[in-house]
Amino acid sequence: MDEVIRVRDLWWRYELGQEWALKGIDLTVRRGEFLVIVGPSGAGKSTLCLTLCGMIPHFSRGHYKGEVMINGHETRKMKLSEITRKVGIVFQDPDTQFVTMSVEDEVAFPLENHGVPREEMLERVRRTMEMTRILELKDKYPNELSGGQKQRVAIASILALEPEIIILDEPTSDLDPVGKSEVFSMLAELKRTGRTIILVEHNTEEAAKYADRVILLRDGKIVMEGPPRKVFQEVESIKSAGVYPPQVTELAYHLSTRYGVRGELPITLEECLEWLRKINARITTPIKFGPSPRRANGESIISLRDASYSYPDGTAALRDINIEFARGEFAAIIGQNGSGKTTLVKHIVGLLKPSVGEVRIFGKKTSEMSIKEIATKVGYIYQNPDHQLFCQTVYEECAYGLRNLGVPETEIRRRVGEILEKVGLQGLENVDTFLLGKGQRQRLAIASTLVMNPEVIIVDEPTTGQDMVQSTSIMELLRSLHAEGRTIIIVTHNMRLVAEYAERVVVMHAGRVILDGDVRAVFSQVEKLRGALITPPQITQLGQLLSGDSVTPLTVEEAADMIRLGDE
User: Fold this and answer.
1) CA 330, CA 288: separation in Å to the nearest integer?
2) Rounded CA gap, 318 and 309, in Å?
3) What string of pLDDT tens digits covers the 568 residues of the chain?
4) Long-range CB pairs of 478-485, under 8 A, 24+ apart, other chains included
5) How many helices (H) and strands (E) are present in the chain, helices listed first?
6) What is the phi-psi region of residue 91: left when phi exceeds 0, alpha when psi lies from -120 to 50, beta otherwise?
């Protein structure tokens, strides 16, 4: 394959930045290649994408050294409009791309700008919306959609252009498990048509299946590069860089270390099954895992009774919800995009009131409480941190709510200092809020809520845009707050985090609760989960395949404990 992109000794520092964001990058991308970029938050992944599509240096201001060539032409010498005909980019935050009043218009807008004939434009729009599962959303306003639906619209608007090179910056971060698989499958199909795919992604399990090559960025440099089979073998190295290896690879690494097995590690579920067969692995029998740890049932502090809700456009988002949450629970709410998860938690925090039925917080109807009154008891961290951040600096953002409650300044300084240290933002007190990366803004949103000391903490997608280290840090913070007696409710698409941290899981589908219970028991309901477009963690699937659905491990460690070699 001939090269379509060549990067030579590329350096970039943002105008207000103190450090180089990219440091001597050398990279060649071949025509038709599927390249996946992994690395911790702040490694320079998004910045590299912006240089490959010409936004840097044409749009962003800063200090640039080196060169980026697209089909033999240097991007600095090309017009941005020329580059966009060859290179399309889907940004990490889909809201930054929307310019029209309907989903259909959003997908058509780039085609209109490029003068695509009307008949061809209509056909491309229809085909792309079908491919991305948004045809039924065509008349909706993009900002009314869920995070995952927005991401699919953003992807569709770029795919409709049919650019030769498609760059996607974490496009699956807000998608449900099946949606993630569908995007990867869609990108693989585009690759088969000759497109070049460059993807920034935290999901190494899907990358392992589809990528031709993986590069690991760290501190603005390429520190590892090669086929996924080569890169993901380095389990300890990539974990130390803040990247999750595929769970099956991590399992095989543990077993190889324990039993002295030599040779190449599997990187996909199917390969792991074959690898275990070849090394004569067996499941210990009988093996029993207890239920996931569950705090003794406390008093009910949140209840929804016969609650239904329809949006003004007629969309029925909740249907006959009857559910309670007890004091001290750690619960996860999961479901496909648009299943009603965020609508449900917005009822709990009083941002929405049910069309039918009632919602009670600590025994009182939310319809009889003010938002301020609810906020002192229930803290809510939005899926998109920009929807709740509005102060100029990090410190002011955290201090704002406390000042509204009349807390003395000395106490504010103490509490803000403590919480910023907890979320890893100490030292950034005077930084402009919107100069932070998305992951940092997410942690700031969490900090500004936690500083209010609410009894219940609800987090909508707590780890979106976070690397492994940051995700673990946030979840451990929530775990420590739970240990103090707080009630934690998370809304997430990350099944691995559900398995590792939650005690209870609520599954939603089409506005209804279809499963509710202990995590292990829920993840055992394979057919019901499939109907709700939910895929359990990779390691859980492996355990179920090995045991004929009789054993449901939740973690790599549990799976390793259920497998033996030889006579042990």
Assistant:
1) 23
2) 5
3) 589 999 999 999 998 778 999 999 999 999 999 999 999 988 999 999 999 999 999 988 899 999 999 999 999 999 988 898 899 998 877 777 888 789 999 999 989 888 899 999 999 999 989 888 789 999 998 877 876 788 788 889 988 888 999 999 988 877 778 778 878 888 888 888 889 999 999 889 999 999 999 999 999 999 999 999 999 999 999 999 989 999 999 999 999 999 999 999 999 999 999 999 999 998 886 566 666 555 546 789 999 999 999 998 888 999 999 999 999 999 999 998 889 999 999 999 999 999 999 999 999 999 999 888 898 899 999 877 888 898 999 999 999 989 988 899 999 999 999 999 988 899 999 999 877 876 788 889 989 998 998 999 999 988 877 788 888 888 988 998 899 899 999 999 999 999 999 999 999 999 999 999 999 999 999 999 999 989 999 999 999 999 887 889 999 999 999 998 865 5
4) 478/330, 479/330, 481/450, 481/457, 482/328, 482/330, 485/327, 485/328
5) 23, 22
6) beta
SS3 347: helix
Whether the bond into 57 is cis, omega within 30 of 0: yes
Contact predicate 344/490, CB 8 Å: no
Q: Kindly state the DSSP code that residue 393 receives in the 8-state scheme.
A: B
Q: How many CB atoms lie within 10 A of CB 334?
A: 26
pTM: 0.86
